[in-house]
Specification:
Strand content: under 5%
Number of helices: 9
Largest sheet: none
CATH superfamily: Tetracycline Repressor, domain 2
Structural class: mainly alpha
Shape: elongated
């Protein structure tokens, strides 16, 4: 990827995350990136192409985090790694995650396919540990992850380390 393409994507990500996808025009992205609007069209075809490129970056970032969980093996380690996921996201990626979360609501864009595999792994971990309702426990963890991620992106709690400690204690991991 060229330096100009990176500048365009960074500008688009920033504007989409801060102002919303629908409210951001390619001309605003071009101005923010310091490039011509034509260059955006040449590299990304249109605004949807920009969004697709950003979402691909988000998927790659997710894969790196998820891989650690999938390779954890031992049930308690799987659960611990899942609970730690929102804590592993680098602050420099928060705009990307803000956009991803916003798109779930703004455009009903939610791809749960990556979560489906994690749910199965998590359910299996709870099953191996003898939990009464492994599926419900897995869903509870996903609800925690969604809430924790939202909190970190909107108003990071001062005691987030204590929250992690508390939830790990609940699951004895």
């Amino acid at each position: 990827m060229t330096e100009k393409q990176e500048k365009i994507l960074k500008a688009a990500l920033n504007l989409f995350a801060q102002n919303g996808y629908a409210s951001t025009s390619t001309s605003k992205v071009a101005k923010e990136a310091g490039v011509s609007e034509g260059l955006i069209f040449r590299h990304f075809e249109n605004k949807e192409g920009l969004l697709k490129a950003i979402m691909n970056m988000a998927m790659e970032s997710s894969k790196q985090l998820i891989t650690e969980v999938m390779l954890a093996g031992e049930p308690k380690k799987v659960i611990r790694k899942m609970l730690e996921l929102p804590y592993q996201v680098d602050r420099s990626h928060y705009d990307m995650w803000r956009l991803t979360y916003a798109l779930k609501w703004q455009m009903n864009m939610y791809d749960s396919s990556a979560n489906d595999a994690l749910r199965l792994i998590l359910k299996d971990a709870f099953q191996q540990l003898g939990y009464e309702d492994p599926e419900a426990e897995a869903e509870l963890v996903f609800m925690f992850l969604d809430g924790a991620s939202t909190a970190f992106l909107l108003h990071e709690p001062k005691n987030k380390a204590d929250v992690l400690k508390c939830i790990k204690k609940k699951y004895n991991v």
